[in-house]
Hints:
Blueprint: H1 12-33, E1 40-42, E2 50-52, E3 54-58, E4 61-70, E5 73-77, E6 82-87, E7 93-95, E8 100-105, H2 107-167, H3 173-230, E9 233-235, E10 240-245, E11 252-253, E12 258-263, E13 268-275, E14 287-292, E15 295-304, E16 312-319, E17 332-338, E18 343-349, H4 353-357, E19 361-365, E20 371-376, E21 378-382, E22 386-391, E23 398-400, E24 412-414
Parallel strand pairs: 1-24
Antiparallel strand pairs: 2-23, 3-18, 4-13, 4-17, 5-12, 6-8, 6-11, 7-10, 8-9, 10-12, 13-16, 14-15, 14-17, 15-16, 18-22, 19-20, 19-23, 20-24, 21-22
Helix pairs in contact: 2-3
Amino acid sequence: xxxxxxxxxxxxxxxxxxxxxxxxxxxxxxxxxxxxxxxxxxxxxxxxxxxxxxxxxxxxxxxxxxxxxxxxxxxxxxxxxxxxxxxxxxxxxxxxxxxxxxxxxxxxxxxxxxxxxxxxxxxxxxxxxxxxxxxxxxxxxxxxxxxxxxxxxxxxxxxxxxxxxxxxxxxxxxxxxxxxxxxxxxxxxxxxxxxxxxxxxxxxxxxxxxxxxxxxxxxxxxxxxxxxxxxxxxxxxxxxxxxxxxxxxxxxxxxxxxxxxxxxxxxxxxxxxxxxxxxxxxxxxxxxxxxxxxxxxxxxxxxxxxxxxxxxxxxxxxxxxxxxxxxxxxxxxxxxxxxxxxxxxxxxxxxxxxxxxxxxxxxxxxxxxxxxxxxxxxxxxxxxxxxxxxxxxxxxxxxxxxxxxxxxxxxxxxx
Length: 415
């Protein structure tokens, strides 16, 4: 006879379902309370740059590109205009002071010189004629006065004689008065003649002085035109290297036009353009250095140009000692300018991350080396090699310093 067995509560199916349910609840609890909810992104570790955070000396300096220039450059400008008839020296040639470089032609200048010279000659003739006329007038005055003196003496004798005769009633009163008036007329005539001749002499002397002044100014004008004509021959004002000359035979040059330049070969300087961000920290006397022919050379800033163009300003630098042997105009070299003294600091290498984060945060690699986590940091000064870390990082940690443009806003990078 068959026996009915009691039905079991924990069947295999129930046990399996219960186990699965418990596992699901445990997984949900883990996700809710214990799992890492930060956004993640898988990245290829070979395509990023991981750098060490270290403690060291922070040297505050910048690297600028310096170009070698002559210590002194003399602009060669045309003092007068004209067209080029001869070009005696080509660019890149050494010249001596006074050496002829160009010959110009200007017909109008020559005409002006001839007109000025003609006017000066006319004034010389006028002056000579006036002086001659004055001498003639003086002789005429002497002759006239001599004649008047003779007539006065005769009139005086007649008057004195009639004066005695009138007392003896030998002559009539009318004859006496006639001789007296004749004597007085001759005396007055002489006085008038003297005054007239004095006025004429003063007037002639005034004319002579005026002519002399005009002649002097005209002669200066002639000399000026002569010097102007001499400037049609362009000469080297100093000895040096004619580094450029921008005219050819037959070309027309305007007055004041730059036609080239001469470089003084007694020394060189370096000129650099620097970002305007540093303008308040650059000053004459600031020291720097650069490498040339395997040697380091020190330089000093001697002049800062305050004008900012396209976000940059220029400085001139001279060598502390002699100019490096073999250096030439136009050569360029990176120049290191020291902006401050070296100080101990936490350092991270410069990288593309800064343009994406502004230096406010960075990805820090964890101890396992399998992921990197976003962390807020604070950066200070910068040189071409390192950032100064003010807070957020410790020496010995590793950080991602390459660009973050492909990471979006992910908080964790998984390698």
